[in-house]
Amino acid sequence: MVEELSGTTIWTPESVAEDPAAGAAAPRQIFVLTGMSGAGKSSALRIFEDLGYFCVDNLPLPLIDKFLELAFQAGSAIQGVALGIDIRGREFFQDAMRVIRELREAGYDVRVLFLDAQEDVLVRRFKEARRPHPLAPDRSLPEAIQMERELLQELRAEAALTIDTTDKTLAGLRGEILPLLRPDQPTIPLVVRLVSFGFKAGIPRDADLVFDVRTLPNPHYNEELRPFTGADDAVQDYVMRDPVAQEYLRHLSEFITFLMPQFIAEGRFSLTVAIGCTGGRHRAPTMTRMLQQALTRIGAQTVLMDRDLTKEDERYRQ
Hints:
alpha/beta, four-stranded parallel beta sheet, about 40% helix, about 15% strand
């Protein structure tokens, strides 16, 4: 039943950890995110943060060396750093190339990511945000954009990747950045959260998908099984002996497997699947565990949560 789901490969953090090359470069890896104001640097930083990088925006250049010394000290869990540097640094900004060269000489793997967009798009974004351009107080917005472009020429030439965000969605921006971070696995990681719950306590508010297993055989009406839960083998065997339960699991597994690439394509990092029965004690915990086994077999990263599993333990064990 589960074997029918084979053939789908999902990237997980564990697969990267097992890659010696990835493990060797990560501890001292630094990305410098720079580019035109309004081109999406803040959004790019959030993407790096979601992927586990320690992100700092607009840190004064004289402080970077000390910050990195603390970030990569012995015992630190930080695997990589993303630094946002732009024209807001004012008098410090002119030293950006010198700082980058010094960091490389110190043994850091430093890569520059430059974000750009067409002038009319940058003008529109500033007008929509109703924020002033860093260079605009004494000049027009188009003049400020042109001046900034000239000041950034050297950094742009140094970039390992230049991204034009003129027509980019957030998902498109993620799709551009990820191959730079994971060249061997250019797929956004997706964590599937499997939550069992009881309908009488309400549907989980953070659920992306909700499924109802109240039509399956209920161990609550079996006096021997009533004190146990869906975490126990006896309850799982009782529920999954039913052919309808087996068919339910097969369809559910195939459906989630089908949806996962769609969520990845949208740039999602997590998918919450809530499965409910009446009290959240027997059938729902059973089905979440069966589904977790099926998804794990195709390489998906899953997290299991039982919202209501123990709420009535004392009542049933009296």
